[in-house]
Structure prediction request, 185 residues.
Amino acid sequence: MLIIGISFPEYIFINPMDAIYIPQLTKAPERTEEVEVKEFLPGLETLTPVRGRVRVQHHGNYLEVSGQAEAIITCTCNRCLQQYNYRLVVDTKEIIWLDEVANQFNDLPLEREVAMEDLIETLSPDGYFYANEWLYEQMCLEMPQRQLCNLNCPGILNKTINNTSEQPLDHRWASLEALKKQLPG
Prediction:
């Protein structure tokens, strides 16, 4: 799978037990396979194992992949820097196209412009689908961008130090302290 701007170490996901051989999927009942997940995913730091399922259905020239999973992660509040627990929930569906030339990057330039219509997931029809890798990516996409312990978080509280002398503790700050005294209020 090609993900622009994010790199995932390949060694994390190589586990033959997680792989679904795509040609074998055509022989499965209803051309569907479902994978139950009850484990810690490598590379994803969670307090609880990821619990859920991934369903893969073969539709000839594409795979329809859906998944529901949840785990608890520890986040750090962007305002007060306190840690808190967050329930990470994934309930998503994705189409992955099957393409003979998928994952053939041998003759690609190091940099190239990519059109919006080219930003699709593709796999080789003779390759493997890694359910845990796909679930890992979906869990990462669901992590909150703005991490707040609660909506009314005041942030880091400014604790004033009762300094008995008017002199700054560090002489390098003396100019700034003189400027501060000139300001009204």
Residues 131-142 form the longest helix (12 residues). Residues 1-16 have pLDDT under 50 and may be disordered. The chain has one domain: 10-159.
